């Protein structure tokens, strides 16, 4: 299954990037994860949405050709990052490429709560009419205190977290099959 991944951090050593890279390798037999370079998108501008920059067209196609979308969100000031919101805004207009795509959310932060507030908002955003993903219910992946749960190569080392994500990925695969049926 081809999955387009939107990661909301442009930081070089981003934990959310590492988490998605880890998932890309670990679940390669189940999910073919395509990490989209949303950090290269310009600021959304409604004046340009009918004739958007080439990168917008390219990423729209990659989402259109995917079986689902994986969102990985950091928490910035109790919300998602501007970068992730910017990408969602581009893909919610003209060509509604996210509508009815099965989605899964993960989030990592150094705080104990592990992006709880950001993910509550993200679920609300994904429910907007132009976005309209079919987001896997429940299955909330909050990786809090992530700096203590990953090694330097970005592998998750916390067994409980590993098992939980294993289980959520299986649920996501079932969810995609259910949506496609
Ligand atoms: C502008 C800004 C705001 C932040 N606000 C929060 C927050 O509200 N809650 C939280 O748990 N962490 C917050 N953090 C810390 C991030 O969780 C931490 O930097 C995390 O590593 C970001 O994700 P990344 O590693 O994928 O870049 C904030 C960080 C920044 C830069």
UniProtKB/TrEMBL annotation:
Membrane-spanning intervals of the chain: none
GO molecular-function term, one example from the UniProt record: FMN binding
Domain NADPH-dependent FMN reductase-like: 1-145
GO CC term (a single one): cytosol
Domain of life: Bacteria
Family named by the database record: Belongs to the azoreductase type 2 family.
Protein name: Chromate reductase
Provenance organism: Oceanobacillus iheyensis (strain DSM 14371 / CIP 107618 / JCM 11309 / KCTC 3954 / HTE831)
């Amino acid at each position: 299954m081809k999955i387009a991944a939107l990661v909301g951090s442009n930081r070089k050593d981003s934990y959310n990037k590492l988490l998605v890279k880890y998932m890309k390798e670990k679940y390669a037999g189940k999910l073919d994860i395509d990490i989209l370079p949303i950090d290269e998108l310009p600021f959304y501008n409604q004046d340009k949405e009918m004739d958007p920059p080439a990168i917008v067209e390219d990423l729209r196609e990659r989402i259109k050709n995917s079986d689902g979308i994986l969102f990985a969100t950091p928490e910035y000031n109790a919300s998602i990052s501007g970068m992730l919101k910017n990408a969602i805004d581009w893909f919610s207009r003209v060509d509604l490429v996210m509508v009815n795509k099965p989605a899964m959310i993960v989030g990592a932060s150094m705080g104990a709560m592990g992006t709880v507030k950001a993910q509550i908002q993200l679920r609300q955003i994904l429910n907007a009419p132009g976005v309209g993903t079919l987001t896997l219910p429940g299955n909330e992946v909050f990786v809090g205190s992530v700096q203590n749960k990953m090694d330097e190569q970005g592998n998750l080392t916390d067994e409980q977290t590993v098992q939980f994500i294993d289980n959520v990925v299986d649920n996501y695969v079932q969810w995609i099959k259910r949506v496609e049926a």
